[in-house]
C-alpha cells in the first residue's frame, strides 16, 4: 500500500484526460472562465471530501449528502494492470501495484475500476472507503501464468466496456512485451472514444543485462537459453529498439507514454514511491487540480 503521507498529497492532483474535456474527477473550477455543472447528490460516505457536503440538504433533511458535478457523471477511470509472469521479474509488478494505487486515490470523484490482463475485474470504486478496498484488491493481485498479450488484453477490455458517451480514460500499466504490435488496440480505444495513458515498466536488467555468459529464462514459457557476450549485446540492442518503437507508436497514436525503469528490490521503498509519484506528474499523467 502507498504511504499515508503520499495519500494526503493525492487530493491535490487528478488525472489528465481529453476524453472528458480537460480532467477526470472532481475538478475544482477556480480558474477564470471555468465552471462545473451541479446535477445531483448522493448519500455522504466515509472518505468523501467534506468540502462537497451539501449543507442546504443537511439543514432540510438532517442527513449528509455529497454534491455531484457533471464531471463525475461522465468521467470514468479504467486501470488495465498487467500481472503476467514477466511482470514478476525485476520489481515491475510491485511498481505496477504502487502506480495503480496512486491513480486510484488521485481519481477522486471518478468511477474507478481495475482490469487485470486476464479479464478479471475489480468492483468499481466511488467513495473513499471503496478506494481503500480497491487499493487492497490491487495488492492481492498475483502473477498469472500463462499471461495475456497486451494487445489482446486491451482489445478485450474495449470489447467488454459498456457503450456510453464519454468513455473515459484507460491507463495501461505493463511491460508491454508482446510478439504482436499494439496498433489494433490503439484503433479499438479510439473507436470507442477512450483517451489512454501507457505506463511502460521495464526492469533495469532488461535494458542493461550483465556482460558475460548468461542463461535467459522465458518467464511465460519457461524455456531456457545460454548465451555469450555477443548475444547479450544483441539482446540489449533489441530491447532498446523495442522500447523506442513502442514509445513512438503510442505517441504517434495520440496517447500519453511514460517509461519507468525498475530495480529488483529498491533499498528505500518510500523514496521509490515518491519517485513514481513525481514521474506521473512530470509526464502529465497527474496534474494539479
From TrEMBL:
InterPro entries: DUF58, vWFA_dom_sf
Transmembrane segments: none
Domain of life (superkingdom): Bacteria
Annotated DUF58 domain residues: 40-238
PANTHER family for the chain: BLL2464 PROTEIN, DUF58 DOMAIN-CONTAINING PROTEIN
UniProt protein name: DUF58 domain-containing protein
Amino acid at each position: 500500500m502507498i504511504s499515508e503521507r503520499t495519500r494526503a498529497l493525492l487530493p491535490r492532483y487528478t488525472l489528465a484526460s481529453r476524453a472528458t474535456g480537460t480532467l477526470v474527477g472532481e475538478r475544482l473550477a477556480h480558474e477564470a472562465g471555468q465552471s462545473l455543472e451541479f446535477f445531483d447528490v448522493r448519500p455522504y460516505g466515509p472518505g468523501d471530501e467534506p468540502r462537497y457536503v451539501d449543507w442546504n440538504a443537511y439543514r432540510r433533511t438532517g442527513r449528509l449528502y455529497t454534491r455531484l458535478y457533471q464531471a463525475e457523471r461522465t468521467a470514468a477511470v479504467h486501470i488495465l494492470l498487467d500481472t503476467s509472469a514477466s511482470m514478476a521479474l525485476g520489481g515491475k509488478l510491485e511498481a505496477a501495484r504502487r502506480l495503480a494505487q496512486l491513480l486510484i486515490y488521485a481519481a477522486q470523484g471518478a468511477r474507478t475500476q481495475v482490469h487485470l490482463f486476464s479479464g478479471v475485474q475489480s468492483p468499481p470504486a466511488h467513495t473513499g472507503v471503496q478506494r481503500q478496498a480497491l487499493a487492497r484488491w490491487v495488492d492481492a493481485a498475483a502473477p498469472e501464468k500463462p499471461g495475456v498479450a497486451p494487445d489482446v488484453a486491451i482489445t478485450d477490455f474495449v470489447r467488454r466496456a459498456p457503450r456510453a458517451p464519454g468513455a473515459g480514460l484507460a491507463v495501461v500499466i505493463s511491460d508491454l512485451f508482446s510478439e504482436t504490435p499494439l496498433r489494433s488496440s490503439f484503433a479499438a480505444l479510439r473507436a470507442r472514444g477512450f483517451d489512454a495513458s501507457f505506463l511502460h515498466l521495464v526492469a533495469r536488467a532488461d535494458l542493461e543485462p550483465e556482460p558475460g555468459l548468461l542463461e535467459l529464462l522465458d518467464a511465460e514459457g519457461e524455456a531456457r537459453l545460454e548465451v555469450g557476450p555477443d548475444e547479450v549485446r544483441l539482446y540489449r540492442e533489441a530491447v532498446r529498439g523495442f522500447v523506442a518503437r513502442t514509445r513512438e507508436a503510442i505517441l504517434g497514436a495520440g496517447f500519453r507514454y511514460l517509461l519507468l525503469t525498475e530495480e529488483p528490490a529498491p533499498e528505500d521503498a518510500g523514496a521509490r514511491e515518491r519517485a513514481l509519484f513525481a514521474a506521473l506528474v512530470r509526464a502529465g499523467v497527474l496534474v494539479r487540480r
